Amino acid sequence: MTRIDVNRKAFGRDEVLCDIHFSFEPGEIVALLGPSGIGKSTLLRLVAGTDTDFDGQIKRPDAIAMVFQEPTLIPWRSVLDNILLPHPALDVKTALQALERVGIDMKAELFPGQLSVGQQRRLSLARAFAGSPELLIMDEPFVSLDGRTADDMLSLTEELIRDIRPATLFVTHSPTEADRLATRILTLAGKPATLAPEREASG
Amino acid sequence: MKTRILSIVSLLALWVVAAWLTADAQILPQPWALLKPFWTETASGELPHHLAVTSLRVVWAFALAMAIGTTLGVLMGLVPAFDRWLDPWLVIFLNLPALVLIVLCYLWIGLNETAAIIAVTLNKIPNVTTIIREGARSLDGNLRAMAQVFRMSRMVYLRHIILPQLAPYITGAARSGIAVIWKIVLVVEFLGRSDGIGFQIHLYFQLFDVAMVLVYSLSFIAVMLLVEWLILQPWERRVRAWRTA
Q1: pLDDT by residue (tens digit) across A37-61?
Q2: Residue A136 and residue A193 in one domain
């Protein structure tokens, strides 16, 4: 279970988040909506543990994975190493299977720079799911993709989430994206931002 | 490559013309007039001995300056408080003439090998630190976040994320480093050692033997060119492979 209790998060005097409390279970997919600049990405960083400077407590499982806005690959290591280095426990065969799952196993020996933008995104997905995460965090993973690619990526993500069943928290701007993927929708509002009353998602 | 060879040949031609115009082998001998003294010095073992001594000093000073300079540079690039403290020192040492450091080292430590190597090392550290600090400042924050989320171990992070980003800066520092270091080593030998290329140049300077001064300096330039071609350039090509793939 992932339990988030953020009493207060500020940058200097600028209070960004206050009194955000929620929890979610494996298999649940939580979408986080809200206007830009409100603090969605800040909240994600707190949940991911890359920012620990806040007042409150976050309980999260050990195996965490994240899909960033940009693919954030290691450009000087091969596609296969991009799976193996973050997951040293995996063997080559499993890593290749993870690549196969997203359709780029033939590219294992290439450098990320030799992949198309869509393939780089797939690699970033493969990396996130290869470690069978218990908590998956995604920061606008389909932003800046054209309609068709975004749709492909969304379907692929849906499939992978269904198989691996992590507790998923993702940020998005798009209510349609949230409706399609999420089981629950949280909305940040106000200044400092807090959670607006919840509504059930159709997905 | 063709242009390179032509450029070197034209430099030689310039030398021949200058020597012909000077018409005094005591001031500027013809290039081929150096072959005989070169052979005598090599056969007697003098030249190889002094070359070896100087090379060893270069290697020591280079290794120390790179190790200390890289450590300081990374720390200064990553820890702002450390940078604020050390930056004024860096500016002072960057602007301190090599000669001052050399003389002070000899005066304080004594006319010995330790003083010589410390003097060269101290001269080079600020330079390496400045270059590596630039590299550490431009490290990719997104990759750091990625490594953090996936709980990559410190060693893996250092080896596969940090070092490849610093590699171009390290090669840059190494190449400019080796060139500066061997020049300073010669000055250090000139001033206070009884062997090495710098010492031999001092000796033949006093005897006003231009040919021997040229034999010794050109031999060492040749050694440094070999280091550049056989070690530094191949290494640089290797760390850049992913960019050109």
Answers
A1: 888 889 999 999 888 899 999 999 9
A2: yes
Query: Mapping DSSP to helix (H, G, I), strand (E, B) and coil, where does residue B71 land?
Result: helix
d(CA B12, CA B3): 14
Residue matched to tokens 């190493």: A81
Separation between Cα atoms, residue A64 and residue B159, nearest integer Å: 22
B22 Cα to chain A: minimum distance (Å): 55
B245 touching chain A per CB within 8 A: yes
- pTM exceeds 0.90, yes or no: no
Task: Give the domain range for residue B207.
Answer: 35-244
Subunit contact B150:A88, Cβ cutoff 8 A: no
Spatial separation of the C-alpha atoms in residues B245 and B241, rounded to whole Å: 6
Q: Which of B145, B156, B245 sits opposite A50 (nearest CB)?
A: B145
Q: Within a 10 A sphere around the Cβ of B40, how many other Cβ atoms?
A: 13
Closest-CA residue of chain B to A137:
B149
Cis peptide preceding A61, ω within 30 of 0 = no
CB proximity B244 to A under 8 Å: no
Contact between chains at B156 and A85 (C-beta distance less than 8 A): yes
DSSP SS3 for A74: coil
Are the C-beta atoms of A28 and A181 separated by less than 8 Å? no
Q: What are phi and psi of A183, to 5 degrees?
A: -95, -15
Residue A68 in domain: no
Tens of pLDDT along A70-128?
A: 899 999 999 999 999 999 989 999 999 999 988 888 999 999 999 988 899 999 999 99
In a domain, B189, yes or no: yes
> Which B residues in the span 138-167 are in contact with A, Cβ-Cβ below 8 Å?
142-143, 145-153, 156, 160-161, 164
